[in-house]
Automatic annotation (TrEMBL):
InterPro entries, sorted: Chaperone_Skp, Skp_dom_sf
The entry's keywords: Signal
Family to which the UniProt record says this protein belongs: Belongs to the Skp family.
Record's compositionally biased regions (Basic and acidic residues): 42-59
Superkingdom field: Bacteria
GO molecular function: unfolded protein binding
GO biological process: protein stabilization
Gene3D superfamilies documented for this protein: Skp domain
Region Disordered, annotated ranges: 42-65
Name listed for the protein in its UniProt record: Outer membrane protein chaperone
């Protein structure tokens, strides 16, 4: 019998690599959102400053522009969140597949009849095969 600490795998460089990949993939869009948020704040500050001297038509026009920008910002923020969650789920699924393949490989190569992951009341050091699984995943790094 063997036991795999999934938490340890999730904190290993294998998992952190996936997190860095996602961060690099989404950082340009995050930067664009930050830029748009600043533009909205600057436009709002400018409008607040000029409010006393603005005509009603000008105020409505600028207010509408701000409203349109805010709606665009919220839409882009929602899309980014949805895309990020989808990619995160894909990466986690990929990692889980790699873990499962590594477990199957270690089990077959070393003659394990039963391997657990998840919770356990007690796991002795001889039953913990997490490091073997991490090595097997690294050996098959895509």
């Amino acid at each position: 019998m063997g036991y795999v600490q999934i938490d340890k795998i999730m904190q290993s460089p294998i998992s952190l690599e996936a997190g860095k990949k996602l961060q690099n993939e989404f950082s340009p869009r995050n930067a664009d959102l930050d830029k748009l948020k600043k533009q909205i704040a600057d436009k709002q500050a400018s409008m607040d400053k000029d409010l006393a001297t603005m005509s009603e038509t000008d105020r409505r026009k600028r207010s509408q522009e701000l409203s349109t920008m805010q709606i665009d910002f919220e839409r882009k923020q929602r899309e980014l969140s949805e895309d990020f969650n989808q990619r995160k789920n894909e990466e986690m699924s990929n990692l889980q597949d790699r873990v499962n393949k590594a477990v199957a490989t270690v089990a077959a190569n070393e003659g394990y009849d039963l391997i657990f992951y998840g919770s356990a009341a007690y796991v002795g050091k001889d039953a913990d095969i997490t490091d073997k699984i991490i090595k097997a995943i690294n050996a098959t790094n895509p």
